[in-house]
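Shipment paperwork, digital attachment
Item: protein structure file
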Amino acid sequence: AFKQNRFNGHGVYVHEDGAVSEGTYVNDSREGFFKLKFTNGERYEGNMANDAKHGQGVLYWPNGDRYDGNFENGRISGFGTLYHADGRRSTGTWRVKPNGQSELVQ
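Attachment content:
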């Protein structure tokens, strides 16, 4: 729905680059459960807040890897499991390093 020149309510938005966002918008911001499909083959299914991945979610990479766990402000952060396409798993608490990348800390 479109209200006061902003997206509000459940909807599907196809971005100019072909990426697709499906979920609930609040004043143009993605909030709550969303499904995202990116043009690089990545997919995300999970919670969002303030237009960023936040809370529980699953991120899929085109190489077959996937992360199932917590996100904070768009980054992998908190408890979760990285499932590698070759069958390996990395489970524990993740944190965001100063360079913006996430690392397993325990």
